[in-house]
Design a protein that fits this description.
Length: 276
């Protein structure tokens, strides 16, 4: 076992924190974790390192508390009041990271009718940046997935997939948010056109929510937008703000003049209700 001088430690830990650094081959680094340390999670200490990095937890008399130095997590009961030693048994310098009072992110399906909730296997220290997961395979019949919130009823802080937040001291539970009465919008090109639009499907919106329709060309003058045969005189720019109020089929037609030439294009839009 690696000898540890419990009276000559490298760092005294008094609050939840993390460490990232390197260990040279054949060297060790020791931290004292006082019994009053703010270990707010059952995870205690989580180590991320090469398998050659061995972990030793000893009490104040040098008695080894963890039986297997290859184990990468130490419970809070073991960590409090102990001495944590990381030893590089390899032949080269290796990076190490440990988190005291490691906490995690839990995703709650919040009423989903099928699918599997995302799982974040990372353990975080207070102040770490966390990237929000997507919905994965979660589905709720009759609803559209809108993102995540710190409160089940949506009254907390909202996060969209791919966004980030700063981890607090006690971890985070994020609840899926579902919109009843959601819609799916399908876009397909008309039969002939000299302007192009992007085809595809848009999810995660609701009736009465604006959808920007943008053709491939944005210059020119005299933009004229026609919806189901009726000119929308309120919209004269290169972006059309489509505001579906009810499910159905819509035809959007546009003309624009550029260098004396009139260009035109049409887009078929199907708005499908996902239920209430």
């Amino acid at each position: 076992m690696v000898p540890v001088d419990v009276n000559a430690t490298d760092l005294q830990l008094t609050t939840a924190q993390s460490y990232t650094g390197t260990l040279d081959a054949g060297t060790a680094k020791t931290w004292a974790i006082p019994s009053t340390a703010a270990i707010s999670s059952s995870y205690g200490v989580q180590i991320t390192a090469d398998p050659a990095i061995l972990i030793f937890i000893q009490d104040s008399t040098g008695v080894l508390l963890n039986a297997d130095p290859s184990i990468r997590a130490v419970t809070a009961a073991q960590a409090a009041g102990s001495f944590l030693t990381l030893y590089n048994s390899g032949s080269s310098s290796l990076p190490v990271r440990f988190v005291l009072s490691a906490v995690n992110v839990v995703y709650d399906s919040n009423g989903a009718t099928s699918g599997t909730v995302p799982t974040d296997l990372n353990l975080y220290a207070q102040g770490d940046s966390v990237t929000i997961a997507g919905a994965g395979s979660l589905v709720k019949t009759g609803s559209t997935f809108l993102g995540w919130n710190t409160a089940a009823d949506g009254s907390g802080t909202s996060y969209s997939p791919g966004s980030t937040f700063t981890m607090g001291a006690t971890g985070a539970v994020l609840y899926a948010q579902w919109s009843a009465g959601g819609i799916v919008v399908h876009f397909t090109l008309g039969s002939y056109q000299t302007l192009s639009f992007q085809e595809g499907t848009q999810l995660g919106t609701t009736l009465g929510t604006a959808i920007n329709i943008i053709p491939s060309f944005s210059g020119g003058t005299n933009w004229t937008w026609v919806v189901d045969g009726v000119v929308d005189e309120s919209q004269t720019g290169s972006t059309f703000v489509f505001l579906p109020e009810e499910p159905g089929f819509y035809t959007i037609y546009v003309t624009v003049t550029s260098n004396g030439v009139i260009y035109s294009g049409s887009l078929n839009v199907t708005v499908e209700s996902l239920g209430t």
